What does this fold into?
Amino acid sequence: MASNFESNTSVASGRVKNGANEGQFQEFFDGVDDLIEKVAQVQSPEIQKIRAKARVALGAARSAVRDSATHVTKQARQLAATTDGYVRASPWQAVAVGTLLGLIVGFAAGRSSSGD
It folds into this structure.
């Protein structure tokens, strides 16, 4: 059962890691890289300073995106481990909580659809 839990958490972390936001960030970073390369041919000292600053900022932004993805992955794994531990320790309580939540959501959904 532990291997099943590990595979589920790796799938969940893969979703976080390979989500649409990361693709958008990567596309943005690639565009900025292309822009920096195009500006590289300009020999003005001011442009060279701006280019260096842009490279530093781009590196910091990439690092921040990686760090936030890692942080979210760690939190998701901790939540999954805590939930798994709780369900294993108290399976009937977990079933009762799940049933209660299902009833509440079903009641709310039924009530909102009948109000149309």
User: Anything to note?
Assistant: Residues 2-90 form one domain. The radius of gyration is 24 Å. Residues 1-17 have pLDDT under 50 and may be disordered. Residues 45-89 form the longest helix (45 residues).
